[in-house]
Every structure is written in structure tokens, then in C-alpha cells.
Amino acid sequence: MAKPRKGLAARRRAMGYSQESLAELLRVTPGTVGRWEQGKSTPEAWLQPRLAKVLAVSVQELIDLLNPRADERLEVRSIGSRSDQPRHDPRGAVQIRHSLDSVHGVVPLVRRALDAFDLPDDGPTRPLVEIAADVARVNEHRLEARYGALAEVLPDLLAELARAAQVAKEGQQEQQVALLRALALRAADGIAFKFGYLDLSGRIIDLIRQSAAQANDPLLVAAAEYVRTETFFASGDLGAAGRALVKAASESALSNLDDQHVAAAYGSLHMRAAVVAGRIGDPRTAKDHLREANEAAKRVSEGVYRGTAFGPQSIRIHELAVATELRDPIGIERAATWHPSAELPAERRSHYYIELGSAQHDLGHHEEAYVCIEMARDAAPQHTREHPQVKGTLASLLQHRPGNNRVVELAAWAGARAI
């Protein structure tokens, strides 16, 4: 028997809504609201962010209200901690699942915001300095793989940026809005591409490139070309990907490479071009790109430049990716002796362990493979759970290690099944 959701009803009343007025606002029936509060049904994933906003709670707080056992608040496992929450505690998995469900629910709202970029809804438009703080925050969510938190605020932020573009004066203010729009769209692509909405990702990337050009920021243009590689990964046109990256790197080299921001743009393009060459199966070209990236890294400290992490540690992660693409056991073994530091963004750290786990599996090192996936999960659980490479590795490990409880638990958590 379903348990009444007293917390949801209490929150509705505290906000001054009757079941009828809330239903009218959400465009559902009063009976639907009643069933939510009685625990007989749950709002669809796409509607949850909207309901949370109306009730002035976060999506996670809404999920707690929808949980009949409202006294058991779900907590995110601390990144990098193995002691704060038992590894087999199902609540951590439920929390992550709900966060990822909220991402899928937000995608239609992102599409709607993009459709109306030139015709945004009426609403408030804050000073650009306040909008810039939110843009920085959503990109931090992207880099730290907090996709649920990113999805929660993204549609409203995109709509506000569309309004800001309409009221911006020509010149510097207009360029600043374009820069903020490009960076916010970069965050949106972090959801679209990783969650498999490749058509939406391609559309967003085109808008990023347009916004970067309008911002008159060559470094932002270079970052847009870095992101554009995803389009070619999706289509399989790796030749075009390599040409686009080399062209963008050559244009960056026309600026002062002693400037660390220019060097980071130049190096990140070569870093990604190395992975493309590795995927094509061209070790010589991959080596040349890595050499250029390493030269650029000598001029910078590890950091995030125009939304892209770059520096000596980022290059080491890409060196592993190249070795994995080329099926180079020596390169893989060399990479396995190193671990990224906590100063790197969580998403990039987790990607290193995901790559290493896949490579170790291919080498027949099954124990090391699932340990790597556990480390990726500790670094960035949402990124790791959604990653197709993780699901593929775990699906294969289920065949090789069907009785290993750690593998079974990881596979269940990631939704992987034996091939």
C-alpha cells in the first residue's frame, strides 16, 4: 500500500497552493496532484524540475518529498571517500538515478529554450555580473560531473541569456552576452552529448561556434573547435575532425604562445587531435600532436581555460587515451603507474580511470579493470554511471567474473548486463 506523501502536501500548502491551483499551473488535473500526494503515482521526470521550481525547492529536495520515507534523506556519496557511505548502500544509487532522470526530464526544456532564443519568454534579466556568476557555476557543475545540479538551473539560465541579448547595447556589452551564452551552451552540451542526445549536441555546438564568433574572442573560438570534435565523433568522420583541429591550432599559433591562455588553447587542440589520430590508427601523427601539446603545457599550470581543462596532468590522461586507441600495452602499463591529483576536475579524473579500466580489461587484467571503475565512480559517480565504455567493460566482466560480488554490484549500479 502506498504511503501518503505528507511532505509534498505540506509544501504545497506552505506555498499557498490548493490542489486545483497547483494543477492549473502545471497543466495537469487536480486528481493527478492528489495521486502524487497520496503516494499512488510520481510526477514524470520531465515535469519534476518544473514542480520543484513552483514549490521553491531543489530537484533533490522534491525527490525527498516524493519519497514516502521522508525522514531518510538521500545523500550524495562524497567524492573520493569510501567511508562516508557503505559501498553497497542502495540509497546512493537511488539518488544518482533520480539525478540522472532529472537530466533527461530537462532536455525538452533546453530544446524549448533554444527554439525561442530570438523570442524568449518575458521575465527578469539580472545584471550581467550576476548572470556571469551563474554561468561559471553551471560550468563548474559540468566539470565536476554534477549533471543533476546543472540540469536544474540550465533552462532558466538559457532563457535569461536570450533576454539579455535582446536588451544588450551594441559593442562590448553585446560581445559579453555572446561570451556568456557560448559558455552556458558549453555546459548544455555537457548534458546533451554525454546523455546521447547527439542531434541536440550538434545543434548546440553550432550555436556555441556562432556565439564565440559574435563574442570576438579567438580563444573562445578555439574552445568551440575543441568541442566541435564531438560532432565528428558522432558521425565517424575522423578525418574531418583532425583537419578542423589542426586548422584551429594553426590559427591559435598566430597569437603569442607565451601567453598562457593562448598556449592552453593551442595545446588543448593538439591534445585532442592526438586522440583523433590514435583512433584513426596513426601513431606517428598522434605522437607529433602530443609533442606539440607538451610544449604548450610547459607554458601553463594545470587549470581550466575557456571551459577546457589543460595542463601537464590533462596531457597524461590523453596519452593514456591515445595508447588505448592504439592498443599499445607499453603505453597503457606506463599510464597505470600514475594517478591524477584531486586538483583536476572530477569528470576528467573519472575519465582517466574509465579509459584505464577499459585498457586493463583488454589486456586481460580483470581485477585491475573493475578496481579502476570503482575509482572512477568515487571521482564522479554520475559521469561514470552513464558512460557507455563503463557499461561495455562491466558487461564483459560479468561473463569473465560472474561470481565476483564487486563486479555484480558495479554492473547493477551502472545498469550493465552480460553480453
From TrEMBL:
Keywords: DNA-binding. Residues 8-62 form the HTH cro/C1-type domain. It comes from the Bacteria. The keyword DNA-binding applies. It holds the Pfam family HTH_3. Transmembrane segments: none annotated. This is Helix-turn-helix domain-containing protein. It comes from Lentzea sokolovensis.
